Amino acid sequence: MSYLYVSDQSAVISYSANRFQVKYKDGMLKSIPAEMLEVIEVFGNVQITTQCLRECLQRGINIIYYSTKGAYFGRVISPGHVNVFRQRRQAELGKDEKFCLEFSKKIIDAKIHNQIVVLRRYARNSRENIDRPVAEMKYMQQKVVEMAKSVDQLMGYEGNAARIYFRTLGKLIDPEFAFTGRNRRPPLDPFNSMLSLGYSIILNEIYGKLEGKGLNPYFGMLHQDREKHPTLASDMMEEWRAVLIDTTVMGILNGHELSVDDFYSEENKLGVFLSDRAFKIYLKKLEEKFRSDNKYLSYVDYSVSFRKALDLQVNQLAKMMETGDLTLYKPVKIR
User: Fold this and answer.
1) For the structural domain made of 2-81, what CATH number should be given?
2) Which residues take part in binding Mn(2+) (predicted)?
């Protein structure tokens, strides 16, 4: 199945003769067989015809809208996957504080583990000694598993680990893109700009997969309920942040595929953003990452793409919700 990303301003997406077509302002035309398309993601002033919208609704193809800078606006979805039983069960489990805490521990334990693995990977080609920050993160990981008595307390440990992680990661990147920590709304440096865009894309990909299994993306267990924010999608994203997004960004910047000239700031406004060229390179690299194979899932003995791994994890989450059996959900841990 294919994901269609369209970021060229004034492009038009249409449907004809069982194919979705993209016409660009220079006259170039690209098309995808309807049977191959799963999601359309559009950035900025991209036009979609009524026929295309209708066909997407009939086929259950999600259309996701972002600003030109990657801020999420909303989506067009078909209601065909609503599962009332699962959503009622999901809501019941969300009120079970012990269940939510134990699920959250599993997610954050995996997140910190994956962050440590990423730091070690990039430290191999650096003179930076990361022994101390890794030890500090492991201590926070231990507190998550053994000492956290509430989700709020757990999130405090996670926040400490995240600060150590990003501070250390900022020392392992090409000096041209060095940063001191995570920042957002707006991002203040190229690295954080790419992280914010990547996190938004993966959050909304998980959102669609949750809806596809009849779950409500807004009923979370780890993150607190927030107006208009899909907290369950945020919960599911935590184990994947470092695995999919952080590593892709590090690979692009340390591989010198972009330079500081590929980013811009607007006059009299805070924020650093990707140029059109950088935007397209990044989207292409992310899609390649999602399609690449891995063997990180503990419950399958064969390689799957990262996108398929996301599907399988959502399947396991749905089974866990239906049965209330926490052992059915095993967060991804990379090696």
Assistant:
1) 3.100.10.20
2) 158, 223, 238
Does the pLDDT of residue 228 top 80, yes or no? no
* Predicted local confidence at residue 51, as pLDDT: 93
- Of 105, 186, 185, which Cα lies nearest the Cα of 152? 105
Please say if the pLDDT value at position 80 is more than 80: no
Is 288 among the annotated ligand-binding positions? Answer: no
Cβ neighbours for 127, distance < 8 A, ≥ 6 positions apart? none
Please indicate if the annotation marks 205 as binding a ligand. no
CATH hierarchy code of domain 84-328: 1.20.120.920
Domain(s) labelled CATH 1.20.120.920 in the chain stretch across 84-328
Note whether 312 and 302 are within 8 A (CB): no
Q: Is 81 annotated as a binding residue?
A: no
Task: Note the Cα 77 to chain centre separation in Å.
Answer: 19
- How far is Cα 331 from Cα 298, in angstroms, rounded to an integer? 9
- Tokens 């899609």 correspond to 287
